[in-house]
Amino acid sequence: MAMSEYTEDFEFTPQEKDLANSFFKLLSLDGKKVFTADDFFEYGLQRYLSDPSHMVGALFRKFKLHGLCVEAGHLHSTRDSNHGRELKLWKVVEGANP
Q1: How many CA atoms does the CB half-sphere of 13 hold within 13 Å?
Q2: Percentage of the chain exceeding pLDDT 70
Q3: Does residue 98 belong to any structural domain of this protein?
Q4: What's the number of domains the chain is made of?
Q5: Is residue 6 in a domain?
Q6: Residue 47 covered by a domain
Q7: Distance of alpha carbon 79 from its chain centroid, rounded?
Q8: What's the pTM?
Q9: Contact (Cβ atoms closer than 8 angstroms) between residue 28 and residue 21
Q10: For residue range 76-88, what is the model confidence (pLDDT) as tens digits?
């Protein structure tokens, strides 16, 4: 499931689809209806991206374009490395599948 480069295409690459399936399954198992990039990192999924600091946002944009989530506001990051910066909050679209 290693992802080597960013793509601007609307369609998921096979690796992005695997990540979407894994991420939304983990969110469901945890009963989470909203998420931020911090959740993606908490689950350890960034290890499958070659440049997580730039690719997570692009991947979340694809989630939105595919109708998997909608923007729901902003929160401050809880990760020490983010120094409390503001993150976009996303809401899972009920019944949507990657």
Answers
A1: 16
A2: 91
A3: no
A4: 1
A5: no
A6: yes
A7: 15
A8: 0.82
A9: no
A10: 988 777 778 899 9
